[in-house]
Amino acid sequence: MGTPLGVYVEKDVPNHDLIVSLVKKHGGNVSSNYSSVPYVLVDRTKESGQSLFRQYHNKKGKVVLDAQWIIACVQAGELLTFKRNWGGMKVTGNEVVISEPPQPEPPRPSVPELQLAPPPGTTEPAASTSGNGQRRKKKGRQTATTEPDVGVQQPLPQETQTIANPPQPQPQPQPPSHFP
Asked: Is the pTM of this model over 0.70?
């Protein structure tokens, strides 16, 4: 045996947990810090892996390998070192980076702005919001915006209705009187 192999496995590596468990199962030490170990395992097809390669490829005692190197070593039954050309797994910086398709943003629910009417009997009109999100007083008719950034205003429903001819109470019929 010898000294346990110090390895850093980048978080973006596919099957990260499998790679970590293989390193530990075969006597290696997994570090959470890539600057303190000689072997940095990355996904060479991702920009993050290429970035670590650019950072460490000229550092003495440091080698950046594709994380599949661990699987290749286990399959070969030995440590594939520079004598075996790292099993073809050494990152060179010439790999094609596969950019991941951008994840679409989830749709944001459209929530109309809620405006409260003034309490009955008050004369001050309610404040409304302008298109830029600023609070302002509105004289006369109240308005509300449906989208704060758009600035389109729609009238609020009328609070009270004026009835021109309210119904009059009907006289109640009087019971017949038995007294003369």
From this structure: no
